[in-house]
Each structure stands twice: as structure tokens, then as C-alpha cells.
Design a protein that fits this description.
Blueprint (H helix, E strand, L loop, with lengths): L1 E3 L14 H11 L4 E4 L8 H10 L5 E4 L2 H8 L15
Parallel strand pairs: 1-2, 2-3
Organism: Capillibacterium thermochitinicola
Protein name: DUF4180 domain-containing protein
Pfam families: DUF4180
Amino acid sequence: MMIHAPALAEDFFNLRTGLAGSVLQKFINYRIKVALVLPDQQKVKGKFGEFITEANKGNSFKVFNNKDEAENWILNIGLLHNTVGFAGE
């Protein structure tokens, strides 16, 4: 599943609401692979940025700068390390 950041409520990016954790846990529980397309680097700051860095370590959820990278990851095309928070690794 691919989700584009504009489709998410602003509360998703505010970890105090618990929305991001709840939603992502549901996807993980049901083994749904999710790619979030988040081209706006301003959203990846503070605690949400830390959350993204940890989430990108798993195989169920990753955040990408663009649709093509997200699609390639979902389809398992190539080895991608260009997720948000991992650029240049």
C-alpha cells in the first residue's frame, strides 16, 4: 500500500496524538506493507523524525521522498536505501 502524505491528517505527524503508532501497528499486525511518500522534509523533524528513522529499520513500513522509490520498494525492485532519514547510507 502506498500513502501520500497529503492524504494524512496533521495529527498523524504529531506523535502526541498516538495516531501514527496506532495506524502503523494495525498495518504491521495484518502484514500489510506500507510506503509513505513524504516529499516535504519539514514533516520529518523532532520526534516524528525519530519515529520515521526507527520505522524505516523494519520491513513493514518505510518513508520515501518520491512515488517511484516507494513503488520499487513495495514491488521489491532493487535494494533501496533512499528512504527518508537514510539518504546517503
